[in-house]
Amino acid sequence: MFFPSSIQNLINQFNKLPGIGIKTAEKFVFYLLKQPKGKLKEFNLAFEELEKKIIKCSLCFNFTEINNFNKDGFNFCSICADSQRDKSILCVIAEPQDLLTIEKTNEYHGLYHILNGVINTIKEIGPERLKIKELIQRIRNSQSSTPVKEIILAFNPDIEGETTILYLTKIFKPSKIKITRLARGLPMGSELEYADEITLTNALKNRQNL
Amino acid sequence: MFFPSSIQNLINQFNKLPGIGIKTAEKFVFYLLKQPKGKLKEFNLAFEELEKKIIKCSLCFNFTEINNFNKDGFNFCSICADSQRDKSILCVIAEPQDLLTIEKTNEYHGLYHILNGVINTIKEIGPERLKIKELIQRIRNSQSSTPVKEIILAFNPDIEGETTILYLTKIFKPSKIKITRLARGLPMGSELEYADEITLTNALKNRQNL
User: Fold this and answer.
1) Strand partners, A90
2) pLDDT for B66-82, tens place per residue?
3) Yes or no: is domain B83-205 CATH 3.10.20.340?
4) How far is A173 from chain B (nearest CA, A)?
5) Which of A72-76, B34-38, B80-84 has the highest mean pLDDT?
């Protein structure tokens, strides 16, 4: 009302971002307006590119760009298209961000499958809303070329993650594929004194031979 | 590196906003990517509009849209173009956000003049980098139509604000224009016990008759 509608509009858009209140949204817009015009254009272009180019990988549902690694009308992400990666291991994760976190360890060289969430009974997210059908189909298809030998279930160690692990284990148990999960135990740098009971129970149960 | 460059680009852009680290920037971009495509387009459009339409008011340097209230090639903001506002009072402020804050009180009905900052010797912002020349010219020009009778100096009560007040008072003191500043004293809801000495000194010095 005191500012032109185009300023108000962008404030409202920023206000929709997670954790951003109206004051912070105002701060962002005025910060941007104080920058040289080129900076605003840069930001705008980055937005436009994202909106135009980003699609999901046809195989693992990671984000990728249109015509990135196109094979027979399918779009593959850089990881799925990488011939160096071990196609016999599949790491099943909830969100694309988890891929980033795992890649940063430099410890995993297999492929990914992004479920697009986890089973959440409170939010009424059932298995049918996740990419589980696609996972089953993908593993079935792999038999003809490089069969998947191991599925790593890498979800957050919470109720939803555990539910999803249970559900997927039930599905894949009958097959000969090895199913693993991320180890639970004490995180690096933590103190025994402050560890919660579940973490400590898990650390005891899964104690390792030296 | 693990994500397409268009995702990385937008993360970098968000990362430049004040107080936004790389993790939060990532959260924003993945949040946006999870929204239906229309939402992303909305955000993009808001950006585009801001970039294309926003200019500064030729009179007070508030933000306004191109061809908003055009007079003889000048662009006026909605406040400067409002004939209901009292043209004889001028409130001098540092930033456009301050205008919003003052307007919200519904107590002020004059015009504004935005300096685009305050004098800051540490950051080497001298008076020549502020819209002070324009302020002097504006007051001089006003003599031919509605002369400015009062200048309210509304800056933050800190060293930079006080310096700017001193500087402007020196300039305008020789003229017959009344110069005022925002009252200093105890803020509403505060406790006497916790008031700092300068605030309390000001509250005592400027005590009001009942």
Assistant:
1) A111, A151
2) 865 666 777 888 899 88
3) no
4) 31
5) B80-84
ipTM surpasses 0.95: no
The average pLDDT across A130-145 equals: 93
Distance in angstroms (rounded) separating the CA atoms of residues A105 and A169: 25
Nearest CA in chain B to A67: B4
Where along chain B do its domains lie? 5-53, 83-205
Write the residue in A13, A18, A46 that is nearest to B46 by C-beta: A13
- Chain A contact set for B54 (CB, 8 A): 4, 6-7, 33
Of the candidates A170, A147, A167, the residue with the CA atom closest to the CA atom of residue A155: A167
Q: Which chain B residue lies closest to A43 (C-alpha atoms)?
A: B13
For residue A52, what pLDDT band results from cuts at 50, 70 and 90?
Answer: confident
C-beta of residue B199 within 8 angstroms of C-beta of residue B184? yes
Residue A9 C-beta-side C-alpha neighbours within 13 Å: 18
Q: Of B17, B43, B54, which has the smallest distance from its Cβ to A47's Cβ?
A: B43
Per-residue DSSP letter, B119: -
Taking the whole predicted model, whether its pTM rises above 0.95 is answered as: no
Q: Tokens at residue A152, please?
A: 């790593």
Question: Closest residue of B to A38, CA-based?
Answer: B51
Shortest CA distance to A109 belongs to which of A82, A132, A136, A134? A82
CATH tag for A5-53 (out of 3.30.2090.10, 3.40.430.10, 3.30.450.20, 1.10.8.420): 1.10.8.420
The CATH code of domain A85-205 reads 3.40.1360.10
Interface touch A50/B10, C-beta < 8 Å:
yes
R_g over Cα of chain A: 22
- Summarize pLDDT for A171-200 with one digit per residue, the tens: 999 988 999 999 888 888 888 888 888 888
Confidence of residue A65 (pLDDT cuts 50, 70, 90): confident
Q: Does B82 touch chain A (CB under 8 A)?
A: no
